[in-house]
DNA sequence: GTACTCACG
DNA sequence: GACGTACGTGAGTACG
């Protein structure tokens, strides 16, 4: 039967429900995976209540829930500022939107939305059709924009206040009947939707005017008759704006819809579908309520969860237990593994013999299923632990045979349906990967903290535990000792190891429960999911691959350096007239300034003379000795830090050097390379650069290096919107020469290297948060001259100064700055007083630029593995703006092509830079040649 | 453990 | 008006 007299249509303003539910409820999360579901929970409750309340004689015969879709509607075409003042949707709400659609369908209610239209227009069209058909319509909403629809069988119902709004209700609100609501709104405007209206006229005045003149058209036509001069002037001057406002508030009652009223007939919910949805959301209370109403038994939701419970982090903390479980046999282990499978997540931690993942042997594994409930599975503890003298290789009792235990653990660790939660996951993943176990999927509490709290504090387990759990874990030193008497973990008595190791897993799980919902609220879920988490396996593989280093090349260089140093030391002693340690800044300072009486002895804050390279360079004009010390220092540095130390890092098994990247080390998002640091291998001086000749490709392979050209300056040009710089990058011009030309009014064809050098220093200075002092020191020119350069630069590129001012302002207001990809860098010192303020300011200016560049190369690295999967190539190293690969001879060009494409497009699709990213490539048998 | 110096982007 | 400053790292050495 077609919709008509006697039928009653209910239209629910679904989008309004969602926002109301979101703001009314605390940020609840689904227990199993931390998914935010507060708004979904509230939404479901509201829908359920509505259904229950509307049973009886006046029950709806037809119903639908209507949603907004798309942010751009025809109203934006009329007026681009429409709803422009709306805040971005909160990050923890966004993923819930699709779930509200699912919820609607689960209730077997029609779920209506149409691209480019607001829910209001769909509601208007349907309400009008219902009225025309002679039926009734109730709009469940309190949105005043919908009040224009009331009348002729159409009413509204405010679900929160539980009141009906009819003709009378509209008059009470607007002072006019529903047919004139639009006129009043057009005059009064609406600040929440950014509808301008007539300035100075609110609802009260608007209603008076409309009632007096009859309609808006009439009023505007006879505006000159309005007695109040100010009001009259406004109406005459702003007539166009008022007419536009009317178009904006006028709902479209004649939308082309893909469905008719008849298709909205009320259907009973399909019990199974509804309960499936509710259990999937882990809404225990609602599941029970619905089951009771339907007279069936409620399905069991694993892991008791109450959707009305307090948010996780406010829940009472379970105390840390005195002791944990020692898993001694396979039955006990199987039981723990089964519990982890049932739970769907498990916190794990490994104990090993070394901090170096490449050499570390697995000694034990701990698991934690819920706070306070953790176990340790010892696997490699040695007998006679404490008595070194009698230590044997025999394993002590109470341990499952290694292979048997790993055979049971491996399926759990590799199960895609069980989330593994770790602190600094890369470490454990590498140790386990060497045993043939590929741990996935993984969450990392260290990286969660880094994404949220970068810049505030470190992200080690002890720091996090003390700060966020108020609990100091057992220090490792209590087990293995310190210094000379330190032992490896396999020598630790199992009974002691259990409580230490299991506690770490317990702490990790508790941190995860705390952090997971916070990620959404801190708006860094995307950063964590796209820039942190996926990097773990990529870096793990790079580190395990390592880079081949030729020991012979290094040791030859070491010998040469040693001789050179000895020669320099002789000369230095001669000039000083006495023997002293050249490597001691303290002794050197005394020789230079006290004994030889050289000028300009500046003291450090500890009272010692400064003997840095810049000071010695100045002194080199006065005396021969400082120059010799500089030479000595350079050689000494090369020998001790590179040619000697690097040899110690060659892995005896692989013959390669395996660095470790810390993902959460640098505040800006950059990686940091340690043990050894391969991101500071010399290149600037000819002698230092030769160290790179020791980094070689193995037989049949080639090293290929690709690096971003001027990436930070390009990002600055984009962020600050400097048209000239952007154009120069697009045209492939020499950016420093162009800057020089603009600043000093020198045509490009008359550019001298000296002027270009100065411009280059300024460009870099800008990235660092330029100061007259810093530039003066760098260029070795007087301060006022440097300041003059800076003034001229800002005059020429005012956008840069604007960027700096805005960034500092943002930091002061919010306590953090952001990269283009949303990475947050906290700036806790930004409002400090004293000299620290300057530091924090410059760091805040630099962070978005350096950080965005770091994000770009992270994105490239994450995509790189797939992009080169078909090539015989391996990604080995990252040096901030450079990636080093090893590839079979013959495939070099294919690699360059594929890798370049990934790197140049790495910002897309998230960020479409207005400058091109360019990548330079080189190749050769050694890193020196490849660069 | 801290200070200083110096290698890199 | 004086003061003190380029941004981000890791590591080796001296010294208390």
TrEMBL record:
It catalyses: DNA(n) + a 2'-deoxyribonucleoside 5'-triphosphate = DNA(n+1) + diphosphate. This is DNA polymerase I. Belongs to the DNA polymerase type-A family. InterPro entries: 3'-5'_exonuclease_dom, 5-3_exonucl_a-hlix_arch_N, 5-3_exonuclease, 5-3_exonuclease_C_sf, DNA-dir_DNA_pol_A_CS, DNA-dir_DNA_pol_A_palm_dom, DNA/RNA_pol_sf, DNA_polI_H3TH. Its EC number is 2.7.7.7. The keyword DNA-binding applies. GO terms for biological process: DNA-templated DNA replication; double-strand break repair. Residues 688-891 form the DNA-directed DNA polymerase family A palm domain. The lineage of its organism: Bacteria, Pseudomonadati, Pseudomonadota, Alphaproteobacteria, Rhodobacterales. Pfam families: 5_3_exonuc, 5_3_exonuc_N, DNA_pol_A, DNA_pol_A_exo1. Residues 7-267 form the 5'-3' exonuclease domain. It is an enzyme of class 2 (transferase). It comes from Palleronia salina. Keywords: DNA damage, DNA repair, DNA replication, DNA-binding, DNA-directed DNA polymerase, Exonuclease, Hydrolase, Nuclease, Nucleotidyltransferase, Transferase. Single-chain monomer with multiple functions. GO terms for molecular function: 3'-5' exonuclease activity; 5'-3' exonuclease activity; DNA binding; DNA-directed DNA polymerase activity.
């Amino acid at each position: 039967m077609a919709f008509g007299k006697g039928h009653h249509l209910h239209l629910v303003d679904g989008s309004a429900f969602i926002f109301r539910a979101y703001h009314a409820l605390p940020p609840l999360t689904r227990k199993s995976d931390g998914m935010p579901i507060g708004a979904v929970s509230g939404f479901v409750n509201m829908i359920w209540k509505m259904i229950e309340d509307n049973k009886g004689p006046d029950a709806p015969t037809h119903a639908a829930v209507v949603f907004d879709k798309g942010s751009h509607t025809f109203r934006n075409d009329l007026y681009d500022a429409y709803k422009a003042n709306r805040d971005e949707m909160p990050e923890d709400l966004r993923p819930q939107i699709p779930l509200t659609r699912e919820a609607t369908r689960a209730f077997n209610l029609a779920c209506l939305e149409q691209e480019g239209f607001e829910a209001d227009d769909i509601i208007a069209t349907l309400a009008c059709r219902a009225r025309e058909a002679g039926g009734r319509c109730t709009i469940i909403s309190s949105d005043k924009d919908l009040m224009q629809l009331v009348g002729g069988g159409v009413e509204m119902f405010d679900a929160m206040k539980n009141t009906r709004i009819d003709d009378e209700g509209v008059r009470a609100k607007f002072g006019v009947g529903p047919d004139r609501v639009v006129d009043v709104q057009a005059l009064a405007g609406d600040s929440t939707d950014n509808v301008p209206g007539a300035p100075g006229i609110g609802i009260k005045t608007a209603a008076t005017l409309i009632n007096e003149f009859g309609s808006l058209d009439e009023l505007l036509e006879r505006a000159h008759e309005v007695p109040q001069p100010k009001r009259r002037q406004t109406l005459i001057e702003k007539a166009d704006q008022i007419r536009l406002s009317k178009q904006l508030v006028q709902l479209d009652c004649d939308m082309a819809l893909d469905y008719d009223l008849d298709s909205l007939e009320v259907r009973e919910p399909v019990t199974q579908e509804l309960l499936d949805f509710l259990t999937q959301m882990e809404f225990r209370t609602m599941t029970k309520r619905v089951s009771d109403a339907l007279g069936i038994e409620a399905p069991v939701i694993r892991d008791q969860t109450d959707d009305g419970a307090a948010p996780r982090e406010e829940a009472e903390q379970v105390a840390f237990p005195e002791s944990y479980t020692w898993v001694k046999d396979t039955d006990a282990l199987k039981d723990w593994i089964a519990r982890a499978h049932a739970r769907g997540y498990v916190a794990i931690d490994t104990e090993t013999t070394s901090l170096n993942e490449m050499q570390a042997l697995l000694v034990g594994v701990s698991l934690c299923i819920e706070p306070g409930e953790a176990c340790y599975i010892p696997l490699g503890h040695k007998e006679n632990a404490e008595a070194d003298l009698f230590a044997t290789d025999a394993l002590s009792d109470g341990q499952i045979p290694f292979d048997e235990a790993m055979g049971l653990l491996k399926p759990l660790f590799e199960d895609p349906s069980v989330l593994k939660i770790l602190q600094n996951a890369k470490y454990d993943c590498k140790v386990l990967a060497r045993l043939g176990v590929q741990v996935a999927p993984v969450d990392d509490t260290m990286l969660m903290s880094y994404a949220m709290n970068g810049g505030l504090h470190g992200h080690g387990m002890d720091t996090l535990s003390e700060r966020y759990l108020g609990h100091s874990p057992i220090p490792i030193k209590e087990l293995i000792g310190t210094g000379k008497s330190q032992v490896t973990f396999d020598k630790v008595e199992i009974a002691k190891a259990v409580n230490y190791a299991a506690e770490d897993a317990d702490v990790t799980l508790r941190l995860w429960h705390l952090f997971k919902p916070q990620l959404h609220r801190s708006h860094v879920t995307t950063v964590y999911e796209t820039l942190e988490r996926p990097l773990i396996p990529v870096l793990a593989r790079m580190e395990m691959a390592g880079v081949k280093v030729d020991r012979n090349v290094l040791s030859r260089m070491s010998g040469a350096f040693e001789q050179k140093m000895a020669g320099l030391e002789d000369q230095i002693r001669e000039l000083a007239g006495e023997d002293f340690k050249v490597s001691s800044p303290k002794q050197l300072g005394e020789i230079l300034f006290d004994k030889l009486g050289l000028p300009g002895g500046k003291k450090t804050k500890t009272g010692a003379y400064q003997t840095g390279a810049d000071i010695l360079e100045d002194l080199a004009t006065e005396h021969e000795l400082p120059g010799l010390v500089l030479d000595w220092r350079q050689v000494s540095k090369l020998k001790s830090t590179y040619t000697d130390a690097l040899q110690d890092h060659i892995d005896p098994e692989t013959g390669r050097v395996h660095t470790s990247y810390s993902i959460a080390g640098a505040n800006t998002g950059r990686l940091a390379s340690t043990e050894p640091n391969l991101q500071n291998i010399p290149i600037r001086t000819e002698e230092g650069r030769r160290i790179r000749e020791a980094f070689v490709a193995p037989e049949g392979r080639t090293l290929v290096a690709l690096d971003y050209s001027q990436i930070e300056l390009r990002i600055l040009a984009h962020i600050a919107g400097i048209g000239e710089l952007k154009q120069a990058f697009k045209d492939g011009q020499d950016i420093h020469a162009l800057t020089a030309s603009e600043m000093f009014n020198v045509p490009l064809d008359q550019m001298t290297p000296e002027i270009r050098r100065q411009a280059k220093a300024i460009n870099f200075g800008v990235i660092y948060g330029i100061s007259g002092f810093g530039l003066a020191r760098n260029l070795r020119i007087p301060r006022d001259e440097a300041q003059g350069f800076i003034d001229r630069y800002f005059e020429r590129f005012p956008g840069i100064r604007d960027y700096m001012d805005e960034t500092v302002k943002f930091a002061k207001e919010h306590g953090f700055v952001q990269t283009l990809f949303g990475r947050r860098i906290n700036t806790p010192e930004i409002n400090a007083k004293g000299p620290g303020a300057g530091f924090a300011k410059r760091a805040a200016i630099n962070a978005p630029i350096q950080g965005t560049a770091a994000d770009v190369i992270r994105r490239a690295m994450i995509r790189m593995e797939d992009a080169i999967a078909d090539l015989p190539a391996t990604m080995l190293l990252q040096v901030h703006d450079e990636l080093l690969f090893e590839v079979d001879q013959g495939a070099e060009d294919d690699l360059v092509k594929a890798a370049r494409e990934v790197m140049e497009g790495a910002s897309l699709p998230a960020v479409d830079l207005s400058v091109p990213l360019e990548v330079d490539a080189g190749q050769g048998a050694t890193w020196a040649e490849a660069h």
